[in-house]
Amino acid sequence: MYNKVSRVVAALVISALIVCAIPAIEAAPPPAPAVWIIPETLSFETTHTHVGDKFNVTIMISTTAPSYTWQVRVNFNTAHINAVRADYTGTGKSMFFAGHGTVPVTVQIDNTTGFVVHGESLVGSDSVPAGSGSLFWIEFQIIAAPGQEETLTSQIAVEDPSLGNTFILDPDLNTVAGVSVGSATYTYSPPPPVRDVAVAALTFSNDHPKQGDNITITVVVLNNGTIPETFDVIIAFDSTPIGTINVAALAAGNSKTLTLEWNASAGAVGKHTITASATVVPFDIDPTNNSKGKQVVIMSSTGPNTDVNGDGKVDMKDISEAAKAFGTIEGHPRWNPAADVNADGVVNLFDVALVARDFWKI
């Protein structure tokens, strides 16, 4: 019987909803005799739900012996919600007393103290056998919104029977003992934060330094998320860390430019990779954008300036480097500043000829 009644109640609840669907978790009802609320969990987010929107709860009952009268008080937090309507779940009566003659009453709503009281009685010598069913529904309106990082949480609770406002009477008008009660948890919060830090750019003041030269490593980091983030940026030469820069409370949507001075004497002559990596914050939605690498060529400090690849001698590798950069200026994809031997801003035949002239020079 409980399952059949629950299906009907669920239909009533859905039809009465004004807001988007309520994410609800229905737990097992309290042990009978009991009065409780469904759904037990009411969770809303500001992206879909707004102040002024409404939602419904339904008050349920279960008994272990015949019953004659019920009265229920439901308390709520008036700082978060107000009750705007309430009524029996059936036509003019509760579904629990469906098919019986009843004495209905007008529901009482108090948005100052924060409660709803409703009740119903059978007539004459009638009684309802032990069982389960729905009593009444309450429509609430949201009246307060949470702050940016705040969650409003409160209870919509059936009042403890010991206070005398919630009770079940048997056919002899005796108060049924041991009535357990339940409540619903209401929460209203912003959506979960989006977290995503990224390394947007990595540049060097000179990507062909000679051994012993100082270069400036510049890193641009971004906070693509929705909350401030604090993290470290680790700069490594090949796989060896050469510096760590802390970024504190970078605001959502903002970027920051970081610099590190580094001496190229730490590297052997040849091609290497410098990497800038931001530590991954919890729940980062895209850890793949947390790192960037860029090639740096360490040049020999003693070799001629026609040693384009910086390995300490001029051979066909240097001629091919100059030939590959032929016809380019800074900004071109094939631009190689080391191939601009005469430093006139363009790699042309003069540069290629100068490298070829020094073939096998060390």
Describe the structure in your own words:
This protein has three domains: 2-189, Immunoglobulin-like; 192-301, Immunoglobulin-like; 303-362, Orthogonal Bundle (Type 1 dockerin domain). It contains three helices and 20 strands. It has helices spanning 2-16, 316-324, 349-357, and strands spanning 34-38, 41-45, 54-62, 69-75, 81-88, 102-104, 108-110, 115-122, 132-142, 152-158, 167-169, 180-181, 183-189, 197-204, 214-223, 229-237, 240-250, 255-263, 270-278, 291-298. Helix 2 packs antiparallel against helix 3.
Give the tally of β-strands. 20
Q: What's the order of the H and E elements?
A: HEEEEEEEEEEEEEEEEEEEEHH
Mean pLDDT, all residues:
90
Biggest beta-sheet profile: 8 strands, mixed
Structural class: mainly beta
Distance between the termini: 97 Å
Radius of gyration: 38 Å
Which short descriptors sum up this protein?
362 residues, Immunoglobulin-like, Type 1 dockerin domain, eight-stranded mixed beta sheet
Topology:
Layout lengths: L1 H15 L17 E5 L2 E5 L8 E9 L6 E7 L5 E8 L13 E3 L3 E3 L4 E8 L9 E11 L9 E7 L8 E3 L10 E2 L1 E7 L7 E8 L9 E10 L5 E9 L2 E11 L4 E9 L6 E9 L12 E8 L17 H9 L24 H9 L5
Parallel strand pairs: 1-12, 2-13
Antiparallel strand pairs: 1-3, 3-9, 4-8, 4-10, 4-11, 5-9, 6-8, 7-8, 10-13, 14-15, 15-18, 16-17, 16-19, 19-20
Helix pairs in contact: 2-3
Q: Quick recap of the structure?
A:
With 362 residues, the protein is mostly beta strands.
